[in-house]
Each structure stands twice: as structure tokens, then as C-alpha cells.
Design a protein that fits this description.
The chain is an alpha+beta fold and 84 residues long. The chain has one domain. The chain is built from three helices and four strands, in the order H-H-E-E-E-E-H. The mean pLDDT is 89.
Amino acid sequence: MIAWPEFNTYPLDRKIKTLYEQGTFVMAIRYYHYKVNLYLLGTYYIEVFVNHKHASIEKILLLDTTHTRMKFYSDQIKLPVELN
């Protein structure tokens, strides 16, 4: 399974393809003008920021467990305490 450091070097189109083929969709939240899709890729939780106004994926980031967005996730599902 691919690790985050390698995945993060991929161009955006390859990241999308890899998540679609190897990742597991966990859930989606609304965050400002984004729909944020959370995926599990191996042991890494990855956020995909979709801008619906522009019909585009703007960024793909490793889940930051210290960010205030965690509240939106934890309201709906229980994530493991130890995240990579």
C-alpha cells in the first residue's frame, strides 16, 4: 500500500486516480464553500476538497487531526485515536 509521503509527490490527476482505485471513501462534510470527502488510503486519512461552484478538486491533504474540521467528522463517525 502506498504511504502518504509518496502519494503526496503525485500530480493531482494521479492522486485522484489512486484514491479512486485504492482508497476507501469514509464520509463527506461541508466546510465553507467546499465539500470535503474523507478517504482512507492504507493507514492514512486523506481529505479531498471539492469546489462545487467550479466543479473542481482544489486540493488533497493529509487529515490534520488538530484542525477544527475534526468536529464535523467526530459528530458523525468515530475515528481512531492514533492517526498517521
